[in-house]
Design goal:
Elements: H1 6-50, H2 56-78, H3 86-106, H4 112-118, H5 122-133, H6 140-162, H7 172-197, H8 202-224, H9 226-231, H10 236-273, H11 275-285, H12 293-310
Helix pairs in contact: 1-10, 1-11, 2-3, 2-8, 2-10, 3-7, 3-8, 4-11, 5-7, 6-12, 10-12
Length: 344
């Protein structure tokens, strides 16, 4: 047998290292792109709240319509039958719409920074739900990470209740509780999506989520927000945040699965975490507000907790828990989806 060509092996190794380097850089770039999208949705919601516009369901409607049209068109072109019963998608649509409604509503009461930080509450909720219902096994490190994350969330609430700066919102405690409730609904939505994506595919999930999300949103708007929509003066200052929110959410839903395929959910979670710092920068430079020092302590605690729970050991398996689904291949890929729509 001829000896191996060391030069060829070295060249292959170098090419492999370069490929990994390119993939890592691409994953980092897309991660920051998604992080900015999350911040953009928060900025748009905050701007609408500052203008006295209170129509959270209407903000999400256009996003669901875009999802239904874009991915529904692909689904119709493929002419594939549904792999999941339609009523499961209806339940998922209701949960997702209400999660978006509650979190967007919270901008009426608390600050942008608080919403961005407290939205991380969905991560420990996802861990608990997947552990109980999907029988996912987690090590001690992940539960320690949840504990540290909860400490950071408590610090945020403490800061909003006791700080003298009322620019945080008219009722910070109420807003914080809204965000926590919305994050719990996001967690339920994410775990349901994890279950669906393993039995279906991303295109079907996004198309049906968009369809039923649009239907549920339309019904809710007709009941709760008709008077609000009629009272809005549709100037450019009101239209642009509406459109910007929908486009950012659509791009977020569409980009997350790509990141999961390239570099996995751990990189995605850490990238999404930087949206909190983007929110702080917006609050400082766009709103000219002072940020309480407790926010930075809370951010550090939340970041430390998420890094601790996201760290993947050699004998651990990543699970799914993010909003947009992991793969197009009927559950062949088992990426982790954790956490944001969020939308906020």
């Amino acid at each position: 047998m001829a000896p191996p060509d060391e030069g060829a092996g070295a060249a292959a190794g170098g090419a492999r290292r370069r490929w990994v380097r390119r993939e890592t850089l691409l994953g980092l770039a897309l991660g920051q792109f998604v992080s900015l999208l999350i911040t953009a949705t928060g900025f748009a919601s905050s701007e609408l709240a500052r203008r006295g516009i209170n129509a959270p369901t209407s903000q999400s409607l256009l996003n669901y319509i875009l999802l239904a049209v874009a991915y529904g068109g692909v689904l119709l072109y493929r002419r594939q039958p549904l792999t999941i019963k339609w009523y499961y998608y209806l339940i998922l649509g209701i949960i997702d719409v209400e999660a978006n409604y509650i979190v967007v509503k919270s901008y009426q009461y608390t600050s942008l920074t608080s919403v961005m930080l407290l939205d991380c509450w969905s991560i420990p909720c996802v861990i608990v739900l997947t552990w109980v219902f999907l029988k996912t096994k987690y090590g001690l490190r992940k539960f320690l990470g949840v504990g540290v994350c909860v400490v950071g969330l408590i610090l945020v609430v403490f800061s909003d209740v006791h700080a003298s700066d009322r620019a945080k919102g008219p009722n910070p405690l109420k807003g914080d509780l809204f965000v926590i409730l919305g994050s719990m609904l996001y967690a339920c939505s994410n775990v349901t999506e994890e279950f669906v994506i393993k039995k279906s595919n991303r295109v079907e999930l996004m198309a049906m989520l968009g369809l039923f999300g649009a239907i549920v949103s339309g019904i809710q708007i007709s009941i709760l927000e008709r008077k609000e929509l009629h009272s809005i003066t549709w100037t450019s200052g009101a239209v642009l945040p509406f459109v910007g929110f929908a486009v950012a959410m659509f791009l977020f839903y569409s980009t997350v699965p790509i990141i999961l395929k390239i570099c996995g959910a751990t990189m995605l979670n850490l990238s999404l975490l930087t949206s909190d710092m983007w929110a702080v920068l917006i609050r400082i430079f766009a709103y000219h507000e002072k940020v309480d020092w407790i926010y930075f302590v809370a951010f550090a605690a939340t970041a430390g907790g998420i890094v601790l729970y996201s760290y993947k050991g050699s004998n651990e398996v990543e699970e799914t828990a993010q909003v947009a689904g992991a793969s197009d291949e009927h559950g062949k890929d088992r990426d982790e989806e954790a956490g944001t729509r969020n939308p906020v």
